[in-house]
Amino acid sequence: METNLLNIANSLIPRLYNFAMVILSDDKKAQQLVLDAYTVYVMKEKRFLKKQLNTENSKKEMNSLKKFLRKELIKEIYDLGLKRLDHAHSKQVNYSKIEYREFFNLSLFKRSILFLKEKEGMSIDELQEVFGVQRYELIEAYYNSKNELLTVMPFEEIESNMETHYDH
């Protein structure tokens, strides 16, 4: 069981780490957040995981299990990240790179949705499962976050990005 679980976890860690960086924007804290989320999830769901990983699963079933675990671990990372952030300062993440400042000025919820949708390719339905909110709330937060980023982006930068994408 441990070997299969470790193989699945090892394949998920880089993407989970990227999400943890969206929440905390600190390398060491993001690493610890991923480890803690994994540990908490395994402790809570030990029986379920043992049952799943002790049975002979086809490649398709293992991929389904991997997708399921990814969503569950994202939930844990988000929940633990929320608890670790000072709620009064959750929008003021100390991020040194200027080009990402506006992204980190978004609320944690909006940052998370935008990252998971745009970078991780999660569907609205998957995001609904992760965050447990109504579909309309999720769609509204997603489009508002994109709009907020576009309104603070300098016009010249928007034009250059459009030219880069449409010149090919």
Q: What does this entry look like structurally?
A:
The protein is mostly helical and 168 residues long. The protein is 77% helix and 0% strand. The C terminus is likely disordered. The longest helix has 26 residues.
Would you tell me the overall average pLDDT? 79
How would you name the oligomeric state of the polypeptide chains in this document? single chain
Q: Tell me the overall shape.
A: globular
Tally the helices: what do you get? 9
The SSE string, one letter per element, is HHHHHHHHH
Q: Please outline the major beta sheet.
A: none
List the helices and strands and how they pair.
Elements: H1 2-24, H2 27-44, H3 46-54, H4 59-84, H5 101-105, H6 108-118, H7 124-131, H8 135-152, H9 155-166
Helix pairs in contact: 1-2, 1-4, 2-4, 4-7, 6-8
Task: Give descriptors for this structure.
168 residues, mainly alpha
Condensed summary:
The chain is mostly helical and 168 residues long.
